[in-house]
Design a protein that fits this description.
The chain contains seven helices and nine strands, in the order βαβαββααβββαβαβα. The protein has about 250 residues and is α/β, with parallel strands linked by helices. It has a six-stranded parallel β-sheet. A three-stranded antiparallel β-sheet has the order 4-7-6. Bound molecules: 6-phosphogluconic acid. 6-phosphogluconic acid binds next to strand 4.
Length: about 250
Amino acid sequence: MSERQIIILDSAEDAYVRAAEEITHVAGEAICTHAEFLFCLAGGSTPAKVYELMASRFRLSVDWKEVQFFFGDERCVPPDDAASNFAMANRAMLSKLALKPTQIHRIRGEQPPAKAAELYEDELRRSFGIGEDELPRFDLMLLGLGANRHTASLFPGSPALHENERLAVAVEVEDPHRHRVTLTPAVINNAQRVMFLVTGEGKAEAVKDVLEGDTSVDRAPAKIVAPTDGVALWILDRAAASLLSR
Ligand code: 6PG
């Protein structure tokens, strides 16, 4: 059954620290119970501060050699491009953790989009040791929210919202970074825990709509996130939560 928890912090800084604490806690639990932490990263700009915290203040709190890093979505650009989600995570955290290259499972944004999606599916199947009709189960999946209500690269009106066969698909979206690869809703909802981190007044309407509105999933894609057998945690600052009624 899906469970939702909402935590509201006074400032964005407090929200980043709370997110880092949560990651540390879930990592510890996952490593204790099954000897590795299967961690799916979000892109965009909001998580950069959290990644920096993980690689500094929280660095000694996680057994990094037991962590496998994945990505929820990627823009179709080379891995050293300023718009690359991998580049952001690498700069803020991965490059500072002395990881083995085999611990990082990135989406190959430099490839043609459909090819990148296929390669990522293969990578997921191999890493999770799953067959054709099985889904990967992340211990923790970080997600962001766009002001237009998208999450990962599931944008309003996207056919990817109704994709039931694939683990990852190429999408073309209304954004300067048009070509992207995203995990599909089935994969996101198979995670043990998803964590939305949303800060700032500019996201307040989207947060209200996704958490309390009756807009359809096609218009507010983040509404599709409801782990089948897991928890959805929302970490918000006061500004992002300012329009919530409770
Ligand atoms: C991306 C994302 C996307 C992001 C939201 C929020 O590649 O753009 O992964 O889903 O999380 O757009 O982005 P910001 O944190 O930059 O507001």
